[in-house]
Amino acid sequence: IIIRVQSPDGMKKVPSTKRETAAGFIKQVAKEFGFNSNGFSIYQNRNKTGEIDSKTSKSLSILKIKHGDMLYLYPSGSVGVPAEVMDTAAAHSSTSLPSTSFATSLSSSSSVQEDSIDQYLAKQDGPVRRGAGEGPPRGRGPFDEDYLNHLDPPVKQMSFHAYIRKLTGGADKGKFAALENISCKIKSGCEGHPPWPEGICTKCQPSAITLNRQRYRHVDNIMFEHHTIADRFLDYWRKTGSQRMGYLYGRYTEHKDIPLAIRAEVAAIYEPPQNATQNSLELLEDPRAAAVEEIAAKLGLVKVGWIFTDLISEDTRIGTVRYSRNQDSYYLSAEECITSGYFQNLHSNPCRLSRDGHFGSKFVTVVATGGPDNQVHFESYQVSNQCMALVRDECLLPCRDAPELGYAKESSSEQYVPDVFFKDKDKFGNDVTFLARPLPVEYLIIDITTTFPKDPQFTFSSTERFPIENRDVLGETQDFHSLSTYLSQSSSTSFLNIVSDFHLLLFLVTNEVMPLRDSIGLILEAVKTSNEDLAQTWKKSEQWATIEQLCSTVGGQPPSSLDYGAVGGPSAASSSSSAMWSCLHCTFMNQPGTELCEMCSLPRG
Length: 605
What we know:
Layout: E1 2-7, E2 10-15, H1 22-33, E3 40-43, E4 70-75, E5 102-104, H2 116-122, H3 145-149, E6 158-159, H4 160-168, E7 177-179, E8 209-211, E9 216-217, E10 221-224, H5 227-240, E11 245-255, E12 261-270, E13 274-276, E14 281-283, H6 289-298, E15 302-310, E16 313-315, E17 320-321, H7 334-346, E18 348-350, E19 358-361, E20 364-370, E21 376-383, H8 385-392, E22 396-398, E23 405-408, E24 420-425, E25 431-435, E26 439-440, E27 445-451, H9 480-489, H10 495-499, H11 502-510, H12 521-529, H13 532-539, H14 542-554, H15 584-589
Parallel strand pairs: 1-4, 6-9, 8-24, 10-12, 10-27, 15-20
Antiparallel strand pairs: 1-2, 3-4, 5-7, 11-12, 11-15, 13-14, 16-17, 18-19, 20-21, 21-27, 22-23, 23-26, 24-25
Helix pairs in contact: 7-8, 9-14, 12-13
């Protein structure tokens, strides 16, 4: 049996047997917590009643201590520890999900820097909003299921912050709550037997997992700032017929339609290097990944999710697409769930209520696919914390011939995999537990609404379109020819609007001719704060003057068409610039040698 023991420093699960004596059990507890056997007392009740005598030979069964019970440990001299810092929840049964089990703890990771939206929502009351004249909520909290079900549209999962309020309501306001991450791995450091596969025991063996649909979600809504963001992303599929993937950059804000809810607002889509066909996507190594993250951070943006297309043209004459993802097939395939779980684990949610410093994720998945009206729809999801754990610990596989089914791995000599179960109804309507081999992935998926605002918002205000990165296959390249064309088309607008384009800023930082990574901060701050004065200050910088010189040099013409005279630059017939002209690529790349430069077609240097 497993007995949970709550102390001011956290909770531990202590394996034992029904026949174990109280004295033997207390020795086991001392070993688990690293205490001297005489340095603490254990009680059956939170208010320090029902003390377990450390010298008695009575068995746990006689003391009526059962599997899953919670006991309370107080170190010697801890008279001043208030009872409310101990567990305030009802004892969970042995089938409780590890992802939702919790206990209050003095050691809640207070040093963890949570996202600003989480800090904000933690301070809000989160009452249920009622219509005019209806009066106060009268005890109904942000987790009230009746209220959520009567929203339009109905809300199937409460927000994560509402979920915390439901579990930790009381005098402490959830201040000491601790959320527990699932682990599917054998606990290390068990010395009572040889390592797996030669041995395993209840102390180091991970618990079996019974999958349930998650009752809360970390993100409740996804909103694209305006339609152009999505339309430009779809252009790749429209022009090639191949699928496309991108990362969503934006910010997390309060979603006021649901109590204590979070919205992911999308301001831009970055398309990393990838190989794409009509039915597959392969991500490639991205040398610009760090630069993209740095630029986004300075703009006040974070990577909030990923988006991919699954589009098949139905009728090209009227622009319809096939409706393929539905209740008769699948909404996310098992392979896509695993990929989503992988991304969510990479972008875990900082959480001070978890002893690990993180719990769940706010990273979202958006699919551009055909809807029931045969038009392109954007459907959004997350996978559950249980799915994240199965993916992180490499316990979940896709099925080759059934995309809607996953498969829980079986234990091998290299890896122990706990049993994974799910519940469903048989043909007689009875609840039956099944081994997750195979597993319907619907147990792992959480729906999220996707919206576009009535009044478009613009983090990036440029009205012109600078080419999107990594689209060379379309003939859309990011170079100084395209920059020259872009600037000539934008000459009538303010300089702030000209540079307020995510893809342009990325090019300025990552181009090989004149990268501005160390001198771009001022213009990024100008775009972030919509400050024209800052933009004008940066426009007068030496760096921008060099960029303009490069653009005027190429003049929108291919380099090979320039009339080069003597070594050192173009002749007077091809350029009005002075004889001091030199190839900036040779100069700034600092690569002297005899090979020809691709910019000026002359020996480098």
